[in-house]
């Protein structure tokens, strides 16, 4: 693994894996996807093959290919390309980790196996305690729970800023920031990165009132889609709609978002000024979603 | 129910119900308890007969007596005395609500019955929507979950400040404040009210760095006791230790905190400067806990 | 508590609490209810004020009145009237237990408080171990889980037949019988008691093939209503339909069964020969449900 | 996939995957394992690469090798070798299924992906309904839940004996048999197959009293080890102890059973006459576990 030149900070998009209508990976649009994140959303870090990327629905061979494509396309454009290498089989995780190092990824992330698992829940702050002694290359964690006692105590341990502590609950990012998050990883940053950067900027200049207003706008959208049923399939539909890049359907066992969902989501995005009619010009929504 | 003169704000202590060694209610120390909260902890609102007060372990007759004693002792000293009237039987809730009005309590709070319950989880922001049409005297809610999307959307609805939106997760109060909480209800405010008021004050003057430091101090304590096993019994032991007012054991099915717990908690409180040796002068800890 | 003359055995109906349309208890039909159970369903034991009876939705005073009415109406007709006295407040459980003894109930049953509860799950077979040393009047338990390792080990301990071990999962009664249950408590025995007695009889004469067939018939009905949404409200609607005795609506927070549910359930009962057109003669279904 | 000559019936051992001390697969003892199952335990069917076999902790390549070894060693000795091919990635499941057919396995079994999953729980009896129209080669299912309403309704549908309905909760096998199971799959059949066959035989000749006694003996053992903490690691230790064939440690994230566990389990097995001193003659228990 290459030494990290700088700490991961700011927003990290948990990338989707674009697919063709028959469920094969559509590598051809990943270059366009990189440009869209950087230019349109102001997001320069990606988290590849995670939950949003359907990493665990891909074969090991596919995960390697997807990782390679992001590293290749992101060169000189993205700050950091982090590859998720978690798998139920630790042997496969190790293989993916070695591969990520070989191709020059900026980092790896890993979830522990979860079919067999330890009998006791371990909290993040306990894992963090002394971890660089065990894993010298350890750089930080993505915290995707709302237990801010645990997250806060991770931050409390991080007094020398030795770790990147990335918050992973997009809809309440502000609560992670106030508790000391150094960045954030999430699926909504694919299409709401620009809006979310406004939260980061307002927070940075201590304008909490504006930060909260931006957060509420984003919450209104998430709250709306959560009630309709919101997951990776729906994220693919929204990203296709907003970016114009076809993300395709999810792979089974997920089911494609319904047309009804997409119509409702589009209307909500427009009502919140997250999507302009100009953005949609020339797009055949029926075809691309 | 008396009309509320002013919105409930700031800290609200979820009061313990003091008991004698054989599990009967010790009404005699409630006056002293009121003075301690006001003078030593700077807390002028109480939430009586809730979880912390073992309300559901008391008989209806006992709940009435406890409510009366707090209203009586709190007169001209406390800002608001809120009585929790939730019960599995709605008939009993109604009886308790009428009683609270008769004795001049400042408000009631209620949890829905939870043995039989609706098939679908309803979110707080959905409950809040239009509630003053259905319950004209509705004043606000205590939100004791870490789902800040839901809480945020409650705040988002509250643009006319028509509701008191009280956050109930002490160990991450700051995340509730940044999301727009107008106050907080919790069991730790019995003995950490003064420390917690420092968070409120720092937040008010936009000194987020200090607010976070105060929050971390409190988290260190809560994190410590949570790992030892922390509930109402342990809160009684800690409050006895810190305030010097005997809270007694909890009522079955809860078990008294162990001496080992209390010793560890006392050591931690001292190490965090939450408890001075002077505080403990002349107290027979072995006897009072 | 009166000494039990004989062990509780066979079927025990978990009784419904009949209510008027406005949610008050309809004591006037309990006598008729007793006669129906004995004569039409062949059920001579009742379990009063349990979940099926909405015991925890009643006030303590109502629970006493309901218990008295069942004891009075059941005299010389029922074998055993067991009163459930569980409550969140142990003081109230104790009051109800004393009352049950005073009115001459044949036994009490109790669930442990469940708002505050022990930290570790305790299995029934552990509770049973040595219990008569602690509670000399202990007679047995109602086991309402599908964990038949636990239930089997209760039976394994019961080699001197000192306990009544009653199985409480109606839809798989046969599995409880083969594991050694000495009887059964359930809500379906109100209206399927006669059919269920056929299982008991076939099992007794070792005709397992018939026992299984009877069990499957009952499963077809339960499977059908479970998919529609099945609880106490729906049980009240079915019992009203089958017995002709008006059970009324449930008390809030439960909602009355829909007309659609009742129509579907009635059609299913007829298709399974659990309800004949003759049974329904002269009943105004629209009015009585 | 070869056409199944006969329905799968009787006991099926969910096989362990023998490993060396450093966590590599120990293929060399699988032949001996086959002979042990057939000759010492009277078990002639195996279920390979399931939970007990740590299938999901193996790489795809390892799963193929393990499957091949069981098919090869089982030829002319075992009745049926069933390969579990479930994986989080359906692509990988498909690859494993094709491979199983190529090597001449007698059948495959599969769990659905469980990281992403459908929003609604589907019951087994609903899955079974009309399944042979969708999957003409479908042969049956392993039911590993204690919900015998669902299992019973599967049996109820199986009136033409078109399916093998195998029960998978070893500790309550008798309840599955009475509900109509046609066989059983489990980890305890590796070392308690002979004892369990006594249940099957007693049940077959309608000697329910003996069947229940045999079941209770097995329950006493399982109940004992469950309280100590019982999983695949512990099963490996017990199988090593009883069979004398070294199963080795589990692969991470599981941890090897403690020596204390093995000592307690051995003592219990002896006290139940499940293990004789003669069985242990010449074994260096310290070394082999």
TrEMBL record, chains A, B, C, D:
<keyword id="KW-0963">Cytoplasm</keyword>
<dbReference type="GO" id="GO:0005737">
    <property type="term" value="C:cytoplasm"/>
</dbReference>
<comment type="subunit">
    <text>Homotetramer.</text>
</comment>
<dbReference type="GO" id="GO:0008747">
    <property type="term" value="F:N-acetylneuraminate lyase activity"/>
</dbReference>
<keyword id="KW-0456">Lyase</keyword>
<keyword id="KW-0119">Carbohydrate metabolism</keyword>
<keyword id="KW-0704">Schiff base</keyword>
<protein>
    <recommendedName>
        <fullName>N-acetylneuraminate lyase</fullName>
        <ecNumber>4.1.3.3</ecNumber>
    </recommendedName>
</protein>
<dbReference type="InterPro" id="IPR002220">
    <property type="entry name" value="DapA-like"/>
</dbReference>
<dbReference type="InterPro" id="IPR013785">
    <property type="entry name" value="Aldolase_TIM"/>
</dbReference>
<feature type="binding site">
    <location>
        <position position="185"/>
    </location>
    <ligand>
        <name>pyruvate</name>
    </ligand>
</feature>
<comment type="similarity">
    <text>Belongs to the DapA family. NanA subfamily.</text>
</comment>
<feature type="binding site">
    <location>
        <position position="52"/>
    </location>
    <ligand>
        <name>pyruvate</name>
    </ligand>
</feature>
<dbReference type="Pfam" id="PF00701">
    <property type="entry name" value="DHDPS"/>
</dbReference>
<comment type="pathway">
    <text>Amino-sugar metabolism; N-acetylneuraminate degradation.</text>
</comment>
């Amino acid at each position: 693994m290459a030494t990290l030149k700088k700490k991961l900070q700011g927003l990290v998009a948990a990338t989707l894996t674009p697919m063709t209508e028959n469920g094969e990976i559509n590598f051809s649009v990943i270059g366009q996807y990189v440009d869209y994140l950087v230019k349109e959303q102001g997001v320069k870090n990606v988290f590849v093959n995670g939950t949003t990327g359907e990493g665990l629905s891909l074969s090991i061979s596919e995960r390697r290919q997807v990782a390679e494509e992001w590293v290749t396309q992101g060169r000189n454009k993205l700050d950091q390309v982090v590859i998720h290498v978690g798998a139920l089989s630790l042997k496969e995780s190790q293989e993916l980790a070695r591969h990520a190092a070989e191709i020059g990824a900026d980092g790896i992330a890993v979830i522990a196996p979860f079919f067999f698992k330890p009998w006791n829940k371990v909290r993040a702050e306990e894992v963090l305690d002394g971890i660089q002694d065990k894993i010298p290359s350890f750089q930080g964690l993505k915290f995707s729970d709302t237990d801010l006692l645990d997250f806060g105590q991770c931050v409390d341990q991080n007094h020398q800023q030795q770790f990147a502590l990335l918050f992973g609950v997009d809809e309440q990012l502000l609560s992670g920031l106030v508790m000391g998050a150094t960045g954030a990883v999430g699926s909504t940053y694919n299409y709401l990165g620009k809006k979310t950067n406004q939260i980061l900027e307002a927070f940075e200049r201590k304008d909490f009132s504006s930060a909260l207003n931006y957060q509420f706008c984003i919450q209104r959208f998430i709250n709306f889609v959560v009630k309709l049923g919101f997951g990776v399939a729906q994220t693919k539909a929204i990203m296709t709609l907003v970016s114009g890049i076809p993300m395709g359907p999810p792979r089974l066992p997920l089911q494609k978002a319904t047309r009804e969902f997409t119509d409702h989501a589009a209307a909500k995005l427009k009502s919140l000024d997250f999507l302009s009619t100009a953005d949609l010009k020339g797009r055949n929504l029926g075809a691309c979603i």
